[in-house]
Each structure stands twice: as C-alpha cells, then as structure tokens.
Design goal:
The chain is of the alpha/beta class. It has five helices and five strands. It has a five-stranded parallel β-sheet, sandwiched between helices. Strand 1, helix 1 and strand 2 form a beta-alpha-beta unit.
Amino acid sequence: MIAQAKTIEKPTKMSKPEEEWTVFLVDDDCDDLKLAERVLKGSPYVHDVRCISNSGDLFRELYLWHTMGSSAEKQPKSLIILDIHMPGVDGISLLTQLRSNPHTEKIPVMILTGDGGSDKVERTFYMQANGFIVKPLGEDHLSHIHRVLEKGDNWKPV
C-alpha cells in the first residue's frame, strides 16, 4: 500500500473582512502574551486584543464586552484563545465554565499549549474547543485562526 502525501495549505493574503473581532487572549506567561498580541494585531480580522492572565479577569472582561452592545446586532464578535496550562483554574476547567454558561457557550475558543501531544488537548475537542495552537503563537497560525473566525459562532459541536 502506498501512502499519499498530504498537501499543506499556504496562507493567502486576505482582504479586510466585513466583521472585525475582539480576541481575548488568556495566558499566565507575560512573554507569550506579548508575542501573541503582536501577531494577532497583524490580522485583518482582529480589531482588538485583550490580554488576560487569569480566569477571573476573563469573566470580568467578557461581562464588560457583553454589556457593550444594546442588541445582538451591535454586539462585537469575539474569540477566546486560552492557554491550557495555567495555575489556579486551568484551561480545561475554564473551557468547561465557558461552555456551561449561556452567555459564553457559543463564543469560539481555541486552545493554546506548549504540549501538542497532551491527552488534555484531545479532551478539549470533546469539550467543544474550536481549534488548537502549539506555542509560540506565530504568523503561521493566522490562517488557522482565520478559518475559525470565518465560521464565527455558527460552528457545530462534534
């Protein structure tokens, strides 16, 4: 049996999308936050990057974000990029909380981790994570992030 080679998609230069997104970047590592913020600000999809170091601050920021618009039409789109390994409330527990809250259950969540082979990463997909990125977040990850953003909140759980 002959194995077929996989085709690797090259990222394409994207034009300015109709909708812009707010990205909530949750990571306890300051250096990772700075690098990821710089990369995300280079995306035509991203209007705002909010760097957050713990779960309590994330829920505070989400509450403020949620109350910004008076209607669903005015509500800005959002994406959460969440580090899986954090002290205190880890990424898996935080993902569980996000998916069980009616105000946050449909927000796309991507998992950020330094451990690509972890069983925890596989568990996050069963918990309805929308994607995963192996640290450090770089420009080569933008095409994957853009695909998640293009699906928006219309994604279907597995």
